[in-house]
Design a protein that fits this description.
The termini are far apart. This protein is mainly beta. The chain is built from one helix and seven strands.
Length: 90
């Protein structure tokens, strides 16, 4: 995953742009996706770290994928991410 920053002026607040290499799809297709998240946690921005595996619950706004702390997005090994449920293991 790579991260870059953008002004996010069209949203009214700064955003981070994260690019993910997808290892497992549950909805959609593709091997790479780019999404935006608010720059600050106080604005519900997700802190992504390079080298970590994440389960990302993204929304699409005006053809732009977004992720926030208000979703279950998180590190794949965290039970709260729901990975086992997505894989059908309940």
């Amino acid at each position: 995953m790579a991260c870059a920053t953008s002004t996010g002026e069209e949203r009214g607040f700064p955003v981070k742009i994260a690019t993910f290499m997808i290892s497992e799809n549950f909805k959609g297709e593709g091997s790479e996706e780019t999404l935006e998240t608010a720059f600050y946690g106080a604005l519900c921005g997700v802190e992504f770290a390079a080298g970590e595996e994440y389960v990302v619950y993204a929304d699409q706004e005006n053809r732009v994928l977004t992720a926030s702390l208000c979703s279950r997005t998180g590190i794949a090994t965290d039970q709260k991410s729901g990975l086992s449920v997505l894989r059908g293991g309940g």
